[in-house]
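Re-run with default settings, no changes from the original entry. Doing this only to confirm the output is reproducible before filing.
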Amino acid sequence: MDFSKLDGLIPAVIQDATSEEVLMVGFMNQEALDRTRETGFATFFSRTRNKLWMKGETSGNTLAVQQLLVDCDDDTLLVKVTRNGEGNVCHTGERTCFYRELGTED
């Protein structure tokens, strides 16, 4: 993976492995990617807290990794997951972070 473009981070697009719904986008550094591969659960690097965090570590809504796909430039991941817990991914309680539509006037 090429971590050089975004100060050591790569975007990780999280997609439900069954429904193919896009759930969220997070960032990973090398350590987060290594932890994800070791544990089988999606782990990210928090840019605001400057530390690793596993999705669902407090809510129980973890993301079990089914497949990791790398884009053609080796700088973005598509992470196909199975949702655990209540299945809600967004911190607002929504099932996906992409629940609001941006209209043409917005």
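The mean pLDDT is 95. The first strand starts at residue 10 and ends at 16.
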